Every structure is written in structure tokens, then in C-alpha cells.
Amino acid sequence: MPRTLAPGQRCRIHVLDVTTGATRLVHESADVLYEAPNWSAEDLIVNGDGLLFRLPADGSGDPAPIDIRGLPAANNDHVLAPDGIHVFVSAEDGHIYRAPLAGGEAVRITSDDGLLHFLHGVSPDGVTLAYVGVVTDPAGTWRAPNLFTIPATGGPSVQLTDDEFPDDGAEFSPDGAWIYVNTERPLDGTPREAGHAQLARMRPDGSGAEQLTDDERVNWFPHPSPDGTRLAYVSFPPGTVGHPADHDVIIRVCGPRGEGVRDLVTLFGGQGTMNVPSWAPDGTRLAFVDYPLSD
Predict the structure, then answer these.
(1) How far is CA 21 from the centre of its chain?
(2) pLDDT in tens, 105-150
(3) Within 10 Å of residue 277's Cβ, how many Cβ atoms?
(4) How many whole angstroms separate alpha carbon 13 and alpha carbon 283?
């Protein structure tokens, strides 16, 4: 089921200048819980109430629903295609769909292979999708998520990871040479507590995995900038398991190898704040969401 706001809670969509740290509020709602901004030219694409919406990034208008037919309720894993015409969307039925941004019929990409599919990345040439695949046991309990790729037109998936350490947030670098992820795997050989995710990268075939961050916080959703020189990500407090909602988190930026970590903004959010690629095309701004409570 799509997420909803708690009594007295608000949803606020912001645009952040990465150089100056200045933020601009572009929309606020006490009714709809919007999540996960993508950036299309000067518009933001967000999800809320199981739908996708288009919102002017300058705050000059309200979210307008995109008329996509045949798409089950959408979750917060959606990524724009490089062609600027389509969007790939994960839905509550556990499948990934392609749909026209202007509205129209959705086409299912993934097959009934026993996985729940959560999209995070599209290759720069638009040919390949990177997603998180989850197997559930007969009781409905999720097993550790692993990473997969699949042709953007559908077809067999390729499994990149296969172990008991959860992986998530798979996103391609702008040159297609790397897939950036967050993982609980101890790639540096240091044992970690469960849930202690750090940023890493691997080649698109799953080889050459490298750990990028190593700190006490729990780091999720690395988003490479359009020029590939920076990563933006969401950093949760130490001891956080997964990427839950309603936590004090920090949006941080660092170099492509984890160097030069810098705090951009601290906010109340987490899940939904910045799950998907959120950079403006010019690489100077990020879009994010926070969810302040009444107090």
C-alpha cells in the first residue's frame, strides 16, 4: 500500500543548491505523502498515493498526476529513461514497468521469476536496468536483497550478487563503467553489525567491487552527479537497520571514490527523501523531500 502521512505530519519537496547549500521549498502538502524526486529538465517527477506526478522545480505550480494506464500502484523506485520520453517504475505488485512520461499505456518489463523487483538504475544508453531483487519465504519474510540487471525491453536477468549481505540502490555511473550501490558486505574485510550499510561500486557484471565509505553512520542510495565527479547520498544515524521513514538523516556529497565527504543538509525523513536519481541535469542542484511532524 502507498505510504501516507501521520496525523499532523507534512510533506515538503525542496531543491538544494549543492554549492551554496541554499534550499528552496517548491511544494508542501498535509494531504499527500510525496516521495523520491527525479529531475526532468525543469520539472520534478515524484510518486504519491500510488501515482506519478509532475511538479515544476521552481515551485510555480502544484503536482499534476501523469495519466499512466495499466500501471499498478507505483512505489518510490522510479527512474527516467535517457531518451527523456519514458520512465521506468517499480509497482506494488513487485514488477518493473516502462511508461511514457506524457501519459499512456504502461508495459511490464520483468517476468514472474519469483522475485520482487525494485528498480534503481538505467544505463546511460538506456539498454539495461539495474534493480534489487528480493526472494520471500513461504511465511512472507524477505531474504537478503541481491542485485540484478535486465534488458530495458525485458528478457533474462543477470544476477550480480548472491550472498547473505543486503545490497540496494544500484545506480549506473554516467559513463556506464560502474554501478554504485549501498551494501552490508564487508568489502574491506572489517566485520560489521547487521544493517551497517556503506557505499560501494562494482563493474556492471558484478566484478571489481570496492568499498567507498567507512564510517559509523548507515549510508544509502548513492547518486552519481551528471558529470560523474560527485556522489550524493542519504546518511542515517548509527545503528539504523534498513532505510526507515521518520529519522533524522543527513544528505551528504562526496567524490566518486568516497573522498571528501561533506554534509549538505540535515532533515527529518529517510525513506522517500532521496531514493532515486535526484540531480538536476546541470549537476548544480538536488531535489529531496522531508516529512516534519507537528511538533
Answers:
(1) 21
(2) 999 999 999 999 999 999 999 999 999 999 987 777 788 899 999 9
(3) 25
(4) 18
Cell triple for 5: 502521512
Which residues contact residue 49 at a Cβ distance below 8 angstroms, ignoring those fewer than 6 apart? 2, 32, 33
Task: Assess if residue 2 is contained within a domain.
Answer: no
Residue type, 241: V
Left if phi > 0, otherwise alpha if psi is -120 to 50, otherwise beta: which for 242? Answer: left
Q: Are 88 and 81 in contact (CB under 8 A)?
A: yes
Predicted TM-score (pTM) of this structure: 0.95
Q: Is 216 exposed, middle or buried (0-12, 13-18, 19+ CB in 10 A)?
A: exposed
The distance of Cα 247 from the centroid of its chain, to the nearest Å, equals 17
Total domains, the chain? 1
- Tell me the residue range of the domain where 88 lies: 11-290
Polymer length in residues for the chain: 295
